[in-house]
Amino acid sequence: MITGDLKxxxxxxxxxxxxGGLTNPLDVIEQITYLMFIRDLDEIDNIKSKESVxxxxxxxxxxxxxxxxxxxxxxxxxPIPATQLKxxxxxxxxxxxxxxxxxxxVFPFIKTLHDxxxxxxxxxxxxxxxxxxxxxxxxxxxxxxxxxxxxxxYDTKSDTRGDLYEYLLSKISTAGRNGQFxxxxxxxxxxxxxxxxxxxxxxxxxxxxxxGFLVSSGDYLKEKYLKEIFYDKLQLAHFNKEMFxxxxxxxxxxxxxxxxxxTHGVENPGIEYRDSLSDQNPDMNKYSLIMTxxxxxxxxxxxxxxxxxxxxxxxxxxxLLFLALFLRMLKIGGRCASIVPDGVLFGSSTAHKxxxxxxxxxxxxxxxxxxxxxxxxxxxxxxxxxxxxxxxxHGGTDKVWFYDMEADGxxxxxxxxxTKENDIPDIVSRFHDLAKEETRERTEKSFFVPKAxxxxxxxxxxxxxxxxxxxxxxxxQSTSDILSELKVLEEEISYGISELKRIx
Length: 504
What we know:
14% strand, alpha/beta, 19 helices, 13 strands
C-alpha cells in the first residue's frame, strides 16, 4: 500500500512522465518496470559477486568485458566497458551520456540478456521499446527511483512493483476492470505458507498477472529448501525451467512477470500468453500445485470456453469455470488454493451447486477460509474466500475445515493502515495442525463440518451456515416500571415549564 512520503514520491515520478509527454499509464508502468529491472540486475550482480568471494565459488559478472554500441553518426560499432551499463555507474553520468548509454547500450543489452531465444523473457522483451523522451527526463526519473528505493530499502515486506502498478492503475480508475485485482502480498504469502510447496513441484497460476504467486513460491522454496535445490543439478534445472508456469492475456503483465521472475532467481519460467478458459489451454493432469486469484469478470460467451469445462457446469461465470479448469489441469493428488468471490460459496444456481458438488463429492475439499471484504480495498470491496482442495477423481472429502478471518494485519477501510489485529499467523498454524481442530466448537474462529451436513445443505460453503451463535438472555424492565418512570419524567417537565412561564 502506497501512502505518505512514498505516495508523494510516486506522484512526482508520474508527473515527470506526464510532463514528458508519456501519459499512457501502461506505457509508464512498462518503462518504470524496465528501469527497476535494470537496477535489480546491478544489485543482484553485486550480491552474487560478494557471495562468490565469501564462498570461494567461481562467478562471472554479466557486466564483464566489453559491449559494442553503434551511434548513427558512426559506421562502425564502438566498444565500451560493460560496467557502464550498471545502474550504480551510469546514474552518475551527465544526462546526455546517461541517455546515450541507456538507449544504445543498456536497453539492447537487457533485450538479449537471455541466451534461450524461446524463453519467456526473450519472447516478451523482444518488442520492448525505450520511450523516455529526453536525457533530462531520464535523469530526473533515475533520481526519483533511487529516492523511492532508498525509502523501501529496509522494508522487507514491501512489494514495490505490485504497489506501484496498483497505484498507477488507481490513478486512472482502471483497477478492477474485468475483475482484475492485484492480490495483496501478505495474502499471497499466507496461501503459499499454507500450501507449503516442496522441491519437485510443478506450480501454475493460470491468471498470473505480474507473477506474485510464482515469485512468492520461489522465495519460499529458497528459504526452506536452499541446499536441496541449489546443491542438486537436477533440482536446480527443474527450479529454473519446469517448476513455474503462468498464463495471462496481457502482454504488459507477461513482460513484467517475466522480469519479476528473473530478478527473483528463476532463469526461464514458463510465462505464456494464453486464454486459460479457451481451447488455447490444452493442459490436463499436469500440475501438482495451483495457487491463483483468477479474474471475476462476470460472464463469457459459450463459444470461447473450452467444451470440457462446460461439461462440469454449463455456465458463463468465470469464477465457476476457473474452478472446473483447475480440476482438469491438476495431476491426481495435485492441490489447489484459489481465491473466489463469496457467491461461489452459497450461489443457488444449478452451475454453482454442480461445481461445489464436483469438488466435494468427486475430489477432496479441505478448507474454506472466509476473508473480510476490506482485503482488496481501496480498489474493491468484494467479499472473498479461499478454497483449498485436492484432486482425487474418486472423492475423499470427509469433513471440511472452516476459518473466519476477521483481520489481516491492516485496517479494513480505504486507508489500509497497519494494525495489531492479524489472523494470518493463526490460520497458517491451525491449518498445519488440523488434528487439534477436531475438538473446536462452532462458536470459535475455526471448526470442522462433516461432509454429510454440507451435502444436506445443497453444498453451501458459507461459514455462517454452520456457525453456532450463542444468544445471551437480556433482562429488561417491566412495562409498569417504564411507565412509572415516564410519568415522573413528565411531571418534572411540566413543573419546569410552569417555572419558566412564571419567571418570564
